[in-house]
Design goal:
mainly alpha
């Protein structure tokens, strides 16, 4: 028995990584199939059941055909697999969605699956009643699996290559393994990936179950509770009831989600496997501290904006209303900083109370900052912002005292010099990418404001921004086929980041 188990593990280790992930998502299709069967929705159940069987059959055929071939060894090859997961795998994921829905094109289904898997959560179907309960569950489940993929890939793939924000604190060059890790990565990169997966998957699943149970206790409906639990952990913002306004748990439900959104501010909230020297404690983690400061500062700014608007029209805010407004601001600001994009039920009440429009530019700025490195959040990332802040503060000191010597510690000194330089390069690449997608969308007929909102929302993986950043929500379903494919490319680039894409297209790295 022990020998048979060892042989099975050996077969799994030799199986190409893409086929392993394909097999996992094929098995995951049986979850909405069973749920649809319980609801007596036999057509939807068959769509997911047969699609899962088809996926497993294809995986088995390809695995047998390639059993004599040794898969590519090396972390860079695994990075290429991640790119394939976000571009090719959604074609398979869209099959049951397209077949079960039956009233949309396959391109729309593909767009929706890319949006879910990259944890963007862009709502292609604004009328949530158009989708059945199993389809809502499938969208949230795909987003959840995409978030788990990023958790695992951060420690097993991006960290060894000094990518995904790790280049700010790493001693190696972006796209190349650090000297101390290079040998072990060449010997057993697949083993590292499996060890990280075995360690983090129970944590990720356990936290999701905890949110689900707490929401159920707070009075939330079962489907809404599980979808919101998965969406919070993946920061996808996918909801079967249109967000917090349609939820039944009220303030208690929002408070539960608010607490678990902190897992997207810093990886130290759930793991120390990638902690840099000097930052192994959460209270000393610059990302977590900057995230808290940003949430408090922006929420207070928005509260004073509402108070000024109410005063201008001659109204008054009752103490209870003021507390509700402050809570709505805190929740929404944290949700957009972590690129989850959930909107508090009190957010619209505050806008109506003051008579002011949605501060879309501020929400876009929060999404651009993003959450923590190696989390499910997108954006520029807080660690890069911290590196640029340290460098800026140092340059101001040198203007006042040209002969001064920096008094920061060793870790911060590394971030202040080389880390800030790499962070600045990434910021410029991000700005150039944003400009390119603005031009592409404008060439396809989108207005400047619309193109800007779409580009920022997709590159930062903050799909709900598309509906909230403008006074008139943008209807994604009305866009042309070229615009939808362009947004799919933006979501993939925003999820993998430009430095990882550059590493993949550099021939010298492949020759190494």
């Amino acid at each position: 028995m022990a020998r048979a188990g060892t042989q099975q593990v050996g077969i799994l280790r030799r199986l190409p990584l893409f086929l392993l992930i394909w097999a996992i998502v094929s098995l995951a299709m049986w979850i909405p199939a069973v749920y649809a069967l319980v609801l007596d929705d036999h057509d939807t159940s068959r769509s997911f059941l047969y699609s899962g069987l088809l996926g497993l059959f294809l995986v088995a055929i390809i695995a047998m055909a390639s059993s004599n071939r040794i898969p590519r060894r090396g972390t860079l090859g695994q990075l290429a697999v991640m790119l394939a997961c976000f571009t090719i795998l959604p074609i398979f994921l869209a099959i049951p969605l397209h077949d079960a829905l039956g009233t949309t094109t396959f391109l729309n289904a593909y767009f929706d699956m890319v949006s879910a898997l990259t944890t963007t959560g862009a709502d292609l179907f604004p009328d949530y009643n158009r989708l059945s309960a199993p389809l809502h569950l499938w969208r949230a489940l795909v987003g959840w699996m995409g978030g788990l993929l990023m958790w695992i890939a951060a420690a097993a793939i991006l960290a060894p290559l000094s990518l995904g924000g790790f280049e700010v604190t790493a001693k190696g060059q972006p796209g190349r393994p650090v000297s101390g890790v290079a040998q072990s990565e060449r010997v057993d990169p697949r083993g590292r990936l499996l060890r990280v997966a075995r360690t983090l998957t129970p944590v990720y699943a356990g936290l999701t179950v905890a949110i689900w149970v707490l929401l159920m206790i707070a009075g939330e409906a079962g489907l809404t509770a599980v979808c919101h639990a998965m969406s919070v952990m993946a920061t996808s913002g996918i909801s079967p009831v249109g967000g917090m306004e349609g939820a039944q748990a009220g303030f208690t439900g929002e408070a539960i989600l608010f607490l678990f959104l902190f897992f997207a501010l810093s990886r130290l909230t759930f793991s120390t496997d990638t902690a840099a020297t000097g930052f192994s404690r959460l209270d000393r983690d610059p990302e977590f501290r900057i995230g808290l400061m940003t949430v408090l500062a922006v929420a207070l700014l928005l509260f004073f904006r509402v108070v000024a608007g109410v005063t201008e029209i001659g109204g008054q805010i009752a103490p209870l209303q003021a507390l509700q407004v402050i809570w709505g601001m805190l929740f929404t600001v944290l949700a957009f900083l972590t690129t989850a994009g959930f909107e508090s039920a009190n957010w619209n009440d505050a806008q109506q109370l003051s008579g002011l429009g949605t501060p879309g530019l501020l929400l876009m700025g929060l999404a651009l900052i993003g959450g923590g490195v190696a989390t499910t959040a997108g954006g520029v990332k807080l660690l890069r912002v911290f590196a640029l802040y340290l460098n800026g503060a140092r340059e101001i000191d040198r203007l006042i005292y040209p002969s001064s010597v920096s008094g920061v510690g060793g870790g911060n000194r590394r971030i202040q010099s080389d880390g800030a330089f790499i962070a600045w390069i990434f910021l410029m690449l991000f700005a150039l990418t944003l400009a390119v997608f603005n031009l592409l969308l404008a060439a396809m007929g989108a207005g400047f404001e619309q193109a800007m909102v779409l580009s920022v929302a997709t590159l930062t993986t903050t799909g709900p921004l598309i509906e909230l950043a403008t006074d008139v929500p943008i209807r994604l379903i009305d866009l042309s086929a070229g615009a939808k494919l362009t947004l799919c490319a933006a979501m993939v680039i925003g999820r993998l980041e430009t430095l990882a894409i550059i590493a993949l297209i550099t021939p010298s790295l492949w020759r190494d």
